[in-house]
Amino acid sequence: MKKLAILLSFVFVLVVASQASAAVIEKGEKYRLNSGEVVAENLYVGSGEANIAGDVLGDLVVGGGNVILGGRNSKDVLVGGGSVNVFGTTGEDLRVAGGNVIIAGDVAGELAVLGGSVTVLSGVNVSGDAIVLGGSVTIDGTVGEDLMVMGGDVTLNGKVGGNVRVKQADRLTIGEAAEVAGDLAYRSPREAVIAEGAAIRGEVSYDQLTKRDYRKEARDGGLVAAFFGLFTLLALVKFLTILLAALLLIHLFKDGMRDVTDSVYGNFWRELLRGFVLLVTMPAAAIILGLTIVGSIPAVLIGLSYAALLVSASVYSGVFFGALLFKKFSKTKDLRLDWKSAVVGILVLGALGFVPLVGWLVDLAVMLAGMGGLANAAYKKVWM
Q1: Which strands, in side-by-side order, build the sheet including 55-56?
Q2: pLDDT at position 317, please?
């Protein structure tokens, strides 16, 4: 089973996770970090509503329906949600995907936003580059370096320290408070409305799109943006879910997980073969038994056991792969089972899932070996 990495573009999380000393993981219908509270480690939150008014000294990763960030975030921030409001500051890079996005706090690094409606408020300072994609885009703040925008209705009324490239816009408005230190290049069916007080230091180049070209590009771009946004949010939620499940396995069944891990490591091909046999025979047995009256109940039990085994193996595969990576690269004698190895394993397996054939085969092999090891441990626990 393939595990999606949380924004493969943000693979820096893998490096940070492998070097960090600790992390805080929160989930639930609602999560709140009150003003004045401080999380000294990385913070990972998966919640229907997330309100983070306190400070986070490590990386911050949030997935939720309604997300509000109001504190000081010292490092990178990655957010996915239906409504995202960032009022606090970001010490490094800020990445956001959401339906309605408002950026109201300074960003010391780069900014990347994908949303239905995106607003960067006046007074906001983005020190690095900014990339913004949205149906409606308003940039009233300051971008220290280059700005790239793609949207339907685009308004620029802030300052840009580098070049501005509007890859596509139905309507582009340059307000009287706008200042562009470099060039302005834009593509649109109509010429931009440039207010009299606007200051563009470099050259202005206009590539006119026909209405037909614009509709086609808008449709294609909209589909790509929608897919990317949905993918980002689902990847974020899936990563947090798998990570939480993996940590739960390690915490509640640490001795059992260590026995399974030692067994899979020492007899990888045997457990892979066992997992493959179970993958094929269990659903076949459930179907055959389900065709008979007396076998209906056993068929249901086998089906439920099969589903539970698949889910457990999908979660455990990241735990095992992370332990394997730490053993190989840190040259330790024992297989490491903790949150750091779990994070690294889940992320690396997720990334491999995007590599055609080879990555898929690695994912499948690790999952099948985990499936065989878990089934063998369950059998010994019940029958021996």
Answers
A1: 38-39, 55-56, 72-73, 89-90
A2: 85
